[in-house]
């Protein structure tokens, strides 16, 4: 029997003559590495684990640096969960931002969102294993939805799946409780959101949602977990989807001239998240 690894590989629809398929977890030059990352994630990401990581990281006492300094550190990181790219993450940051800038020239906050959305991956530079930093996120404390990547082959050793408090559709949640009350698997999305909130960033709520949930593919990509959402989540979903088009489809072989782009994006950083930040 063939196991479906990802229910929704994505074709790139916005480039003429481009037949590239994104998020194909089954046929890939580094499939074993990607699968191993998700195996570890789905084994160890429990309610208790996430709570401990939030306690560890949300104090924002690990470093003080500017946003651009953080992005430059990501020149040392290649995302082990991403089947589409094998270049340092800083290139993806500028690719995403420039793609948004082309289509949304008047929304500078959305351009900056594209630039910084993965900056939380700095945790991997500081020693966290990538399985609790990168990759698709999912709610802990309840049964994983069908669209979670490797859903049927990687959760068998997760202790929460043997706990009746957590192994049902709602688990520890109430219906329509709102995503703000959901304990997502720990990763760079939640960490970056906490960094922005903790440093009083002036980005709009739409930007904060896109950053906090851009890796939550089972929700914005497959329509799962709506039963945990409230009306605000549903209103913000359109912006998360809009952002995700650029996060996904900006992955390309042509690498941006980062030095040439830095002055423009430094201006946006100075506008919304200036100076040294607590990480």
UniProtKB/TrEMBL annotation:
Residues given in the record as Fe cation binding sites: 92, 117-118, 188, 214, 247
Protein name as catalogued: Inositol oxygenase
Protein's gene: LOC118426479
Pathway(s) it belongs to: Polyol metabolism; myo-inositol degradation into D-glucuronate; D-glucuronate from myo-inositol: step 1/1
Superkingdom, taxonomy of origin: Eukaryota
Keywords on record: Cytoplasm, Iron, Metal-binding, Oxidoreductase
Subcellular location: Cytoplasm
Cofactor binding note of this UniProt entry: Binds 2 iron ions per subunit.
Binding residues for substrate: 23, 79-81, 121, 135-136, 214-215
Pfam families xref list: MIOX
GO biological process: inositol catabolic process
Its EC number(s): 1.13.99.1
Keyword Cell membrane belongs to the record: no
GO cellular component terms attached to this protein's record: cytoplasm
Residues that span the membrane, as ranges: none
Organism for this UniProt entry: Branchiostoma floridae (Florida lancelet)
Family: Belongs to the myo-inositol oxygenase family.
Keyword Metal-binding (UniProt): yes
Chemical reaction(s) catalysed: myo-inositol + O2 = D-glucuronate + H2O + H(+)
GO MF term set: inositol oxygenase activity; iron ion binding
